[in-house]
DNA sequence: CTGCATCCGACGGGATACTG
DNA sequence: CAGTATCCCGTCGGATGCAG
């Protein structure tokens, strides 16, 4: 049957949509660099962005407050990740020139809208966790 | 105003939800290794998983078919990524013992349900692309 | 055709120490 | 308090070659 496809797994609506989007990518060249999806996934995929965004979802926080909130997060990575997030417009930085300078970070409107699809993904991850674990045991052990 | 938060950006429902989830993480220790979200993001965040899943969203495909569909994807990375995806139960592998062996990969039910939140994220990425680009120009240039 | 092994460069990210 | 600079190592991933 050659490359005949479109069956096997019931093609849910989301699948069809993604398949469609993907078809578009191949045709008009996804130069990688300016691929919107890649840009977003490069952030959400790294080690700390999600955690930091999630922390800020509860309200604005100061540098050291975030540091205290997230275990194992170093100053170095916090600084760097905050810079990246700010550059992409997900968060905003406000400096208060007090005696010991204090800096506050908060979600922007853009960052806020990202929370929605992100929450959906998080929900999926938690819901599917048992099934994924089971699949791993099956794959590794048997 | 100290740590007083819960304002600045209108706390959308998704934000509140994520903030809630995050609070839970900190309390019951997110050992990283068995964190469901981390498990999922480790996949979606890597270089090829999404592309491959998206390709399979259009229907089952053979090894070399996927290779041809995705530019710049090497055999090495395709093999490795397929293994990881199979291990987590996102895709299924079927071997047809023909003269030159042919192997078909297809989305599982679990993989299919992942497409939904993933499509939402992709949609968000494409919709927000201009705004992100603008933020970058603002940050870099001015 | 499908997959594994090896080599190797690039990059993420941790530890530590120093500055305004 | 909020960064910056340096070192260093583990992993990701590309190139190539070999094997069922």
TrEMBL record, chains A, B:
Domain HTH hxlR-type: 35-133
InterPro entries noted in UniProt: HTH_HxlR, WH-like_DNA-bd_sf, WH_DNA-bd_sf
Organism superkingdom: Bacteria
Keyword terms: DNA-binding, Transcription, Transcription regulation
PROSITE patterns the record matches: HTH_HXLR
Name the record gives this protein: HTH hxlR-type domain-containing protein
Listed Pfam families: HxlR
Classification lineage: Bacteria, Pseudomonadati, Pseudomonadota, Alphaproteobacteria, Hyphomicrobiales
An MF annotation (GO) of this entry: DNA binding
């Amino acid at each position: 049957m050659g490359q005949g496809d479109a069956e096997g797994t019931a093609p849910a609506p989301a699948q069809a949509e993604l398949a469609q989007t993907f078809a578009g990518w191949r045709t008009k060249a996804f130069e990688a660099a300016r691929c919107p999806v890649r840009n977003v996934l490069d952030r959400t995929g790294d080690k700390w962005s999600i955690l930091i965004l999630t922390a800020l979802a509860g309200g604005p926080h100061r540098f050291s407050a975030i540091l205290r909130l997230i275990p194992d997060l170093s100053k170095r990575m916090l600084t760097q990740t905050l810079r990246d997030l700010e550059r992409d417009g997900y968060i905003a930085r406000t400096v208060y020139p007090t005696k010991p300078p204090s800096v506050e970070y908060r979600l922007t409107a853009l960052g806020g809208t990202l929370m929605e699809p992100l929450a959906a993904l998080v929900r999926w991850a938690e819901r599917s966790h048992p099934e994924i674990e089971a699949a791993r045991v099956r794959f590794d052990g048997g």
